[in-house]
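I am going through a labmate's work and have reached the protein record below. What it holds is a sequence and that sequence's fold in token form. Please read both lines and tell me whether the tokens look consistent with the sequence. Do not assume that whoever made the record got everything right. Thanks in advance; the entry in question is below.
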Amino acid sequence: MISLITLSLNASSQTATTSNKDSLVVLPAKVAKLIAKDLVAYDGLKVEHKATLDLLANTETKVNTQSSIIKQYEIKDGQWKQMMTNYDAQVLAYKNMTADLQKDLRKAKVRGFYNKFGLTLGLGIVTYLYITK
């Protein structure tokens, strides 16, 4: 209703603010309606443009934050990969040490067997010699 009232009124140019009758510009109602319609559309477009710029700024902030987070995860991923490589090297070293210890244990068992066998044989010979003499 307010727009109908404003559209039906005569419009005047902003530069013609004096009260002289010859400086007053009278527009037909149809042209005044079109101008008012364009001005309302322009105001709406200004608001929409501002909202779009705000949305774009927020989106850029989110993208920057996400890029930062992705970079941090890539760094952490590299650190985890390095840790896994180190653990793999440790496991390989432990496997090698286990194999070496198993070889040494077998050698010690064989040495222990020969020591016991030699000791028993030696005691047997000494006992035999002691009994026979």
Remarks:
- Residues 7 and 34 are 9 Å apart (CA to CA).
